[in-house]
Amino acid sequence: RHPRLRAPAGLQGYGLMAAAGPGAGVGAPLLKCAHYSRSCRLKAPCCGKFYICRLCHDDEENHQLDRFKVTQVQCAKCETIQQVKKTCESCETVFGEYYCDTCHLFDVDKKQYHCPPCGICRIGPEDNFFHCVKCNLCLTTQLRGNHKCVENVSRQNCPVCMEDIHTSRIGAHVLTCGHLLHKTCYEMLFNKGAYRCPLCMQSAVDMTKYWEELDTEIAQTAMPSDYQNMIVKIMCNDCQLHSTAPFHVLGLKCKGCGSYNTAQDGGLITPQEQQ
Q: Over the range 31-52, which residues count as b (16 or more CB within 10 Å of their CB) and which as e?
């Protein structure tokens, strides 16, 4: 499973965890796990056990810790159990350079910010992101007015790994069709030669150069005589046009946009049947 933090989405994927920095507070022990660095432990409201973070809890237990219901923490320096807050009430240890009183998130400074519409903390800086109301998640400012909105898109699981995207610690990659993949899933998928969105099948990258190469290859590769002059009905996954195309084993070209990202929509049509 993907580890879970919260990363804004963008063209290159944002929100991957940075290396842990120095602890806050003089002499304060800095507790480090695979997810965060902080100077306190959370008391799980569900089972009463202490963990460095909710993700460590979820990895060990058969239930999940609700971050919003955490009410107590234990100081890593003096071990005082107290109401959740940024600074220890006994020894004044600062539990985290960053603290969110809503998410009860403590961590070293990674320019985090809390996004009320998202309902969780994101890794910033905040000025580099905006909340798209229709998509209902934070996107890089590079995508302001420059992306296709899909309503509540991050509330859908990643179509590759089927894990959550909205609260994931792994950055999201926004495809041209507006759908989201985890950045790592996107890289894995397209490194294997896939070029289409797993959900809508639209081309996820600019395929113009490859289509031109395919034009040349098809022009130089004659079909057997039995299949020459045959056509076939097709549907284009890129422009949604239903049309016909000359039948060729290397590809069926859309008459509308020139894409070879098409699907056959019927059997072969002979020259006699075309009359």
A: beeebbbbbbbbbbeeeeebbb
